[in-house]
Amino acid sequence: MREGILHRRAVISPAECAAWVRGVYAAREHWTPNFEGVQFTVGRAWYTHLEEDAEDAYFAGVAESDALVERFLPGLAARLMAIAEQVVGASVVRRPGWCGPGVHVFPSGGWLSANGGDVHFDTEGLRPHELSARLPALSLIVMLQPPARGGGLRVWDARYEGDDEVENPDELESVTLEYGVGDLVAIDSYRLHQIQPFEGALDRISATAHVALDEKWHCWF
Length: 221
Description:
Jelly Rolls; alpha+beta; 221 residues; globular; 9-stranded mixed β-sheet
């Protein structure tokens, strides 16, 4: 990994991605809506529950979340963890009591497709001692279905320094990583980033795992 960013092409084949995308749509009635429909997940994502004051629902639904992902997307969670192990060069286990890897769906024609996502760090899932010690942490995203145009990840040359707000990020150096089908992007969770706006009829569908090194590498969604 160079400067906290890793981009690998086609770590998952188009055929596998297509099968999991079909599974995502088969699970539509089970999608978890977030932020009044700005985005949805298959499986429960910690940061959405945190920001919507639904932490209890997240922890109460861990077994259900993992079972749902495995039912409709068989093998996806295990594949994400295997990819994480390749990236960090060590064994990765699920964080006890937290949901395993899952999927984000950003609808075509929705708010995020027009405006882009929030500019943010991925520090929400880091526990206080991990955050204060700045223990190594990564966010891994595999694109199952990229939108027709746009939807890349803009990553800034700015690291978390204890404040979630960064003044005038557009004045800082950045790079925008464009996804193809099955591409992996892994970034330092302490690095500022944003999903870019996108166009076209396709929803943006990505699989995500967050990992952190706390004696051993563990992952959550």
